[in-house]
Automatic annotation (TrEMBL):
Keywords for this protein: Endoplasmic reticulum, Membrane, Microsome, NADP, Oxidoreductase, Signal-anchor, Transmembrane, Transmembrane helix
Entry-linked PROSITE patterns: ADH_SHORT (PS00061)
Enzyme class: oxidoreductase
Family: Belongs to the short-chain dehydrogenases/reductases (SDR) family.
GO molecular-function term, one example from the UniProt record: all-trans-retinol dehydrogenase (NADP+) activity
Parts of the chain that traverse the membrane: none
Keyword Metal-binding: no
SUPFAM superfamilies per UniProt: NAD(P)-binding Rossmann-fold domains (SSF51735)
EC number assigned by the record: 1.1.1.300
Record localization: Endoplasmic reticulum membrane; Microsome membrane
UniProt entry tagged with the keyword Hydrolase: no
Protein's UniProt name: NADP-retinol dehydrogenase
InterPro entries linked: NAD(P)-bd_dom_sf (IPR036291), Sc_DH/Rdtase_CS (IPR020904), SDR_fam (IPR002347)
Length: 243
């Protein structure tokens, strides 16, 4: 009785564009189309991500380059495309969807960890630059989730005794937490909150103690089952295609 919708009914129009964010020319040309067909962008969410799924010495160079281009370099191109108008209006919000592996690393996914560390470093430096320029109308939010149950890291496992306390996160939960952080201008959000503790412990403990903590959690080789599954899938695909 008397309940009202949280949002008013209105006619919304959604525009979609296909863009290879790893290629700066593609980003810039698509951004120009967006400006002409839709208007200026006030909220930029950098969320594209890929993973090679190979140990370093088994990973083709082109896959390493792709991971870095999509997960890290693309943030430079998209931000350079849309930030100028935000600066002019002193209004906007830049969201970097990184990863907990951009705050602490694990074995077997060197390219992914490096790309996410790069994304975190880019975001933090950009945030400082905006503060130094006194552009207080442009907000930034860094999103660092734990393993999300999207299939991207299917097979990744931590110690089974710990897994029930730290299961893969549902995408809907991650989106809800990220949206709450964005709407409240929160500079950073880690999900679940336990990730803050792991990051803090990594910052104060000596490396060998961190190794022991990783081994206790089963996080030191958590990606190995995932890499094995990817390798098996690749071998099956090559056999199927007669390669």
């Amino acid at each position: 009785d008397g309940e009202k919708d949280a949002l008013p009914h209105c006619n919304l129009q959604v525009y979609t564009y296909t863009c290879d964010v790893g290629k700066r020319e593609n980003v810039y040309s698509t951004a120009e189309r967006v400006r002409k067909e839709v208007g200026e962008v006030s909220v930029l969410v950098n969320n594209a991500g890929v993973v090679s799924g190979h140990h370093l010495l088994e990973c083709p160079d082109e896959l390493i380059e792709r991971t870095m281009m999509v997960n890290c370099h693309a943030h430079f191109w998209t931000t350079k495309a849309f930030l100028p108008k935000m600066l002019e209006m002193n209004h906007g919000h830049i969201v970097t969807v990184a990863s907990s592996l951009g705050l602490f690393s694990t074995a077997g996914v060197e390219d992914y960890c490096a790309s996410k560390y790069g994304a975190v470093g880019f975001h933090e430096s950009l945030s400082h630059e905006l503060k130094a320029a006194e552009k207080d109308g442009i907000k930034t939010t860094l999103v660092c989730p734990y393993l999300v149950d999207t299939g991207m890291f299917r097979g990744c496992r931590i110690r089974k005794e710990i897994e029930s306390f730290l299961p893969p996160l549902k995408p809907e939960y991650c989106v809800k937490q990220a949206m709450r952080a964005i709407l409240t201008d929160q500079p950073m959000i880690c999900t679940p909150r336990l990730m803050y503790m792991v990051t803090f412990m990594k910052s104060i403990l000596p490396f060998e103690a961190v190794v022991c903590m990783y081994r206790f959690l089963g996080a030191d080789k958590c990606m190995y089952p995932f890499i094995a599954q990817r390798k098996q899938a690749t071998n099956n695909n090559e056999a199927k295609n007669g390669i």
